[in-house]
């Protein structure tokens, strides 16, 4: 499916009036820096100006391209696919008005025409795709920074919101696909594809339901064996399942069956969007972590909250070795607690944090570290961030700098060095929990 996510040429079909979906997709492709050939197509012809470039709008597609993005009325889509089938490898059908509104026959016709020409279909009723490392933004959703997360979403609106949230959370993406009604390509195809994509480090999947459970389980096993797969399942309740069925025409089915399938395949299920991104952030930094955690904090309360959450999640508060305790006592003020959680007290500076991280990291009873910073107003958070960055430690470190504007400088410095911040102790603890599941 490289012709979708790493295309060298693309045709966009629809109206190119400002504000129209095809225009917005064309604008996203151009502004996103796509280096391949771009062909806008509309029977009326004319020209369209986008981001300082002027394109001739062709009346019809008259040369081969890797993929087509189609945003025209649903009733015309099958005929168009029949016409351009010999010239394209894949089509992203943005248009709605198919099986999700009971128009199964039109969707069947679309798929039949595509198969006749060997064309693969994403959609219909979808929000498009991104191939971020190919600088291809074939969607009307907000563009994102390059990174390692591939986002697969059955819902276009959820996908768009998730991309925007990902930007706010500092997440980097390798790809995005909204697959809508899954008339041809579905979640299983994308799981298998991204499992082998060299730019993807983790896969996030939002699903409401699947049509072929056996195929899905096989694809999920395949992907989970290679990369972390984070799943957010909607339609768990009876009412939610009914809403999911009316949304994309898929069978939501019994949630208990899905939950068992996720566990059997080795996927990581999360409960809400916030958790989806926290898991994604964790796996962007680390591949896995053991269960024995050391908590380092300059504030007792957050340290206790982290400890409670870690234990509730089945992780262990590491028992520090005697040598570690003695070494910590040799340089920490007497008011500091040197048993896990390690409380460096409020005035902890760069040196105190860095040395403590390094000493604790060497302890064979410790698999990972959770470092908490609630800086007093007289101590810049950047100083503690620098200590985390420069500490000599080869074990997974998860950080919780809190709160808000007080730590914004430190959080930015951490992010510039590839370290993601978790804004509460509980969220940081959950990140270590997900890492321990791999």
TrEMBL record:
Signal peptide: none
Top EC class, one word: ligase
Pfam families on file: CoA_binding_2, Ligase_CoA_2, Succ_CoA_lig
EC number: 6.2.1.13
Reactions this protein catalyses: acetate + ATP + CoA = acetyl-CoA + ADP + phosphate
This protein's UniProt keywords: ATP-binding, Ligase, Nucleotide-binding
Gene Ontology MF annotations: acetate-CoA ligase (ADP-forming) activity; ATP binding
Domain CoA-binding: 4-98
SMART domains: CoA_binding
Protein name, as recorded: acetate--CoA ligase (ADP-forming)
Record lineage: Archaea, Methanobacteriati, Methanobacteriota, Thermococci, Thermococcales
